């Protein structure tokens, strides 16, 4: 089965991501059954060769790997609880965005019903699915991963994080936390620059090379954090406090809400007050732990 890219799949949920995943399977010639709560989202997929199911029960009536791409953890239970008895002995991959503890709960639920469960975190937007830039993290049932790897890799590169069903979601959400805060920082900067007449597009053209240069420092930050050594060669926390305080003032003066910056400034302030002002900015992770 590992070398057979035509193992049937059943995709439950046809939001933007579910449609993209199903389209990748259909394009590769995989027999694909699709279901969605609301009608109309499967038209292009059915035209391309997918099989429409009118209900979850109908969708899972045939053979194949079951893949859920639903709204949230509650939606997974809402759709699968009523058909749990019919899932016994089946292989199920959950690609719904669920928090690590929710993924672990789903694994426990699956085990009680003798379902082979694999959880996944999608590190891509829908338009990236099936391209070299798409990556999906997996954890939980190793046999599900190994048996279906060739099919899973139609969606993107597949990396297995171990038998803890929450591990994929943990790594997924950790990266997304970095992404959201990076984008939020850009929004703040664009708002500030805009008060001086710079368009957001013009600001982006300047931000990309600057931020690209700054992220090159992440490996050094990671090494310092792992070693627990926060000696500052330049720009210690006391310096960072002064800089952040000035940026907060400048934001307020420009009429820009400092909501995104003030929590960071507060973390730095707390460290300086505690006597860590001579240490490096990387020590901030200790305030989060």
Shape: elongated
Give the oligomer, counting copies of the same chain as homo and different chains as hetero. Answer: single chain
Taking the sheet with the most strands, its summary is:
8 strands, mixed
Topology as H/E string? EHEHEHEHEHEEHHEHHHHHH
Low-confidence stretches: none
Helix segment count? 13
Distance between the termini: 44 Å
The strand line-up of the biggest sheet is 3-2-1-4-5-6-7-8
Structure classification: alpha/beta
Mean pLDDT: 96
- The number of distinct β-strands equals 8
Q: What portion of residues is helical? A: 40-55%
Compute the CA-based radius of gyration.
23 Å
Bin the strand percentage: 5-15%
Highlighted features:
alpha/beta; elongated; 8-stranded mixed sheet; single chain; 289 residues
Overall description:
This protein is of the alpha/beta class. 48% of the residues lie in helices and 12% in strands. It is built from 13 helices and eight strands. It has an eight-stranded mixed beta sheet, with helices on both faces. Strand 4, helix 4 and strand 5 form a beta-alpha-beta unit. The chain is elongated and about 65 Å long. The model has no long low-confidence stretch (mean pLDDT 96).
């Amino acid at each position: 089965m590992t070398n057979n890219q035509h193992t049937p799949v059943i995709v439950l949920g046809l939001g933007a991501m579910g449609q993209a995943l199903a389209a990748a399977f259909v394009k590769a010639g995989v027999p694909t059954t699709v279901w969605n709560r609301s009608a109309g989202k499967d038209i292009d997929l059915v035209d391309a060769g997918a099989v429409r199911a009118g209900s979850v029960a109908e969708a899972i009536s045939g053979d194949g790997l079951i893949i859920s791409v639903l709204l949230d953890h509650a939606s997974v239970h809402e759709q699968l609880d009523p058909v749990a008895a019919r899932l016994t002995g089946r292989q199920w991959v959950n690609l719904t965005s669920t928090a690590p503890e929710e993924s672990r709960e789903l694994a426990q639920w699956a085990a009680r019903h003798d379902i082979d469960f694999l959880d996944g975190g999608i590190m891509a937007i829908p338009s990236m699915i099936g391209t070299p830039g798409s990556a999906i993290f997996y954890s939980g049932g190793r046999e599900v991963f190994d048996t279906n790897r060739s099919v899973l890799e139609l969606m993107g590169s597949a990396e297995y994080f171990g038998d803890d069903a929450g591990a994929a979601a943990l790594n997924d959400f950790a990266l997304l936390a970095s992404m959201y805060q990076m984008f939020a920082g850009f929004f703040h900067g664009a708002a500030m620059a805009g008060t001086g007449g710079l368009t957001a597009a013009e600001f982006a053209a300047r931000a990309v090379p600057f931020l690209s240069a700054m992220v090159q420092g992440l490996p050094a930050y990671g090494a310092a954090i792992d070693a627990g050594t926060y000696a500052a060669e330049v720009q210690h926390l006391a310096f960072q406090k002064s800089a952040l305080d000035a940026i907060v003032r400048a934001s307020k003066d420009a009429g820009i809400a400092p909501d995104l910056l003030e929590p960071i400034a507060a973390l730095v302030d707390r460290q300086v007050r505690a006597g860590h002002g001579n240490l490096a900015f990387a020590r901030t992770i200790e305030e989060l732990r």
